[in-house]
Specification:
Layout (H helix, E strand, L loop, with lengths): L1 H13 L8 E5 L6 E2 L8 E3 L5 E5 L9 E5 L15 E5 L9 E4 L4 E10 L3 E9 L4 E3 L21 E3 L5 E7 L9 E7 L4 E10 L9 H21 L1
Antiparallel strand pairs: 1-12, 2-14, 3-4, 4-7, 5-6, 6-14, 7-13, 8-12, 8-14, 9-10, 9-11, 9-13
Helix pairs in contact: 1-2
């Protein structure tokens, strides 16, 4: 019976929101994702399923000053994204680098985006999950500080030039029945960069765990099997 009790304890651990989670990042897009609609607003993006990604400053400040580009226009033809002809361009008042937070809807389990520029420059992207985990585009895990910034190792930088788009996908790498979802994706591009080709996967069952009654019934079954085995011995 001791063996069955150990199995029950293990089941309880796996069924709770404990640390078996971790973000995954990969280059390129993912299959089975929902694309986004042609935007009509510069403070948020809406997927074909109605899921909304908000654009904010650091720690959820006021909506960022964004413009919407269209690669079908001659002036915007430098955008070389793969799936969508539109893109967003973050504009900084000082003409320097921009911190942009893409706030994910509840239960986001994966998100991808492309970046492009009309000149060569550097940038970085970091994903943050609901447990406070982070991952950057080089696979590093920068520490999330209390003020919302990141400490060393610094978010990985990458270069991109005109016609050289970069696509990154973030995935909530849950195992063992844990509840980790993507809360935001932080982007720090140089001015006149574009971000687009958004795709998302929102799973409303991502954080569900077995009901206590189900676990109790399973435990009773295990204990009963233990007694039955002991009676035969």
């Amino acid at each position: 019976m001791y063996t069955y009790l150990k199995s029950f304890v293990l089941l309880m651990l796996l069924s709770s929101n404990m640390a078996f989670a971790g973000l995954i990042v990969q280059s390129g897009g993912l299959s089975g994702m929902t694309d986004f609609q042609n935007p009509s607003d510069t403070s948020f993006a809406t997927s074909d399923d109605g899921d909304i990604v908000q654009f904010t400053l650091l720690n959820g400040g006021p909506s960022y000053d964004m413009t919407i580009g269209d690669s079908s226009n001659a002036a915007d033809s430098w955008w070389s994204g793969n799936d969508q002809g539109f893109y967003y361009t973050p504009i900084a008042a000082d003409g320097g680098t921009n911190w942009l937070e893409l706030i994910m809807p509840t239960n986001t389990v994966s998100f991808s985006l492309s970046m492009d520029a009309n000149f060569s420059a550097l940038g970085w992207i970091v994903g943050v999950d609901s447990l406070g985990g982070t991952i950057d585009t080089n696979g590093g895990t920068p520490t999330l500080q209390s003020d919302g910034t990141f400490s060393n190792p610094n978010p990985g930088t990458f270069s991109v030039g005109n016609g050289d788009d970069k696509t990154f996908s973030f995935i909530a790498g849950n195992t063992g029945g844990t509840c980790s979802t993507i809360t935001k994706v932080v982007v720090d591009p140089n001015r006149l960069w574009g971000i687009g080709d958004f795709a998302i996967n929102v799973d409303d069952n991502a954080c569900q765990v077995p009901e206590p009654s189900v676990i109790a019934l399973f435990a009773v079954g295990l204990i009963g099997l233990g007694f039955a085995r002991r009676s035969r011995a």
